[in-house]
Each structure stands twice: as C-alpha cells, then as structure tokens.
Amino acid sequence: MKPNRSSSNYAAKFRKSASGGIIAFVPSNTSEARSTTPSVERASSSDLRNHRYIFKENRMGDRFKSVGGYAVVAVFLVGLFAIPVIFLLGVTWASKHLLQPLMMAGWIALAIDVLALLPLSIFKRLRGFTGVAIFISSYIFGLVTWLLSFTITYILWGSWAAALGVLLFGGTVVPFAILATLFNGRWYELVTVLILFTLTWGVRFLGFVIEESR
Fold first, then answer.
1. Which of 31, 60, 166, 207 has CA 20 to 30 A from 149's CA?
2. Long-range CB contact pairs, 104-108, < 8 A, 24+
C-alpha cells in the first residue's frame, strides 16, 4: 500500500515565534517552509518594534508626568510667595507686578492649548505629550484665578477677609471673592472669576482625558 502523498508532503507542525505571541502553522515540506518562515519572522520583528514603541511611549509619558508634578510645586511656591508680598507691598504693586504678568502668561498658555496642543491631540501617538502639557497649563490658569480672587477679596473686604479665606479654604480665596463681588455688585469681576475658575478645572479635566486616551 502506497503512503499517502498529501500526508507526507504536507505534514506540519506548530511553531511559536520569537516574540511568544504568534503561533504559525509551518508545513514540513521544504519549499513551503521557505515561503512560510519569512512571514513569521516579519511578524515577529513587527511585534518587537511595537513593543519597543509602547515601552518608549510609556517612558515619555512618565517623564512628562514628573514634569507636571514639578510644575504643580512651582505654582504652589509662587502662590505662597505672593501672600506676604501683597501684605507688605500692597495690592496696587501686586496687581501691576504679579497679576498682570501672570494674566499675560495665561493668555499665552491658552493660545498654545487651542492653536497647537489640541490639534496635535488628533494624533494618538502625541496624546501622551499634549495631554500632560494641557494639564500643566491648567495650573497657570489656577494661579491667575487664585491671585485675582485674593486681590479682589483684599480690596472689597480687607486684609482680614483675604487671610481668613486662605486659612478656611485650604489656600484658595475664590469662594470669598465670589461672595465679595456678589454683595458689592461687582458683576464684571464676578464673571471674570467664574470664567477663570471654570477654565482651570475644564482644561485640567480635558488634559487628563486626552492623556488617558493615548
């Protein structure tokens, strides 16, 4: 009885790729093995490149997260430094030399977010960078909101209210500024504080969502 040619020529074995993730069906026939093996090798090298890219992307994201942590500390120190400066040099000096430059920095950060970082977030590979950068910019808006609220509270209700607002609300006087503008009918200042407060938390949440969607 003659052996089955198809079974002898097409006897096969399973072969696992070098990456450990692909199992290929490789025939024992020499010609077919030659035509099949390169595809397995190509798939393996492609998998390894993907793994290297993911690893590099994760390292980049961790670096930007650490930069974000330093930015938060820097913003906190600037705010802490501003309190005695306002009490010692006065609100007028602080408004001119602290608040105005910070507001200019806020406008620049907002322009960068809208014109550069948000469009670049369309590309998934860049979201790790753009999301963290947008998240960091929210602390600039937060610092502007805090300093403006402190100044408004100081002007409308006095130094005792500004100091009390800092102590009662964990370093933020935004609620006191909102109440002070409401009771004094300063609607323009009230709207400004509310817009800045909303912008701060909206941009922070947006940056978090973009970074997590990468």
1. 207
2. 105/140, 105/144, 106/140, 106/141, 106/144
Contact 155, 139 (CB under 8 A): no
- Counting beta carbons within 10 angstroms of the beta carbon of residue 11, is it exposed (0 to 12), middle (13 to 18) or buried (19 or more)? exposed
Higher pLDDT, 3 or 171: 171
Which of 98 and 10 is assigned the larger pLDDT? 98
Nearest to 129 by CA among 62, 49, 200: 62
Q: Please report, for residues 152, 182, 184, the alpha-carbon distance to residue 188 in angstroms, rounded to integers and kept in the order given.
A: 12, 10, 11
| DSSP letter assigned to residue 17 | -
- Give the C-alpha distances (Å, rounded to integers) separating 75 from 56, 125, 136: 29, 28, 10
What DSSP designation does 98 have?
I
pTM: 0.67
Tokens at 173, concatenated: 């006087």
Residue 210: which of 133, 95, 142 has the closest Cα? 133
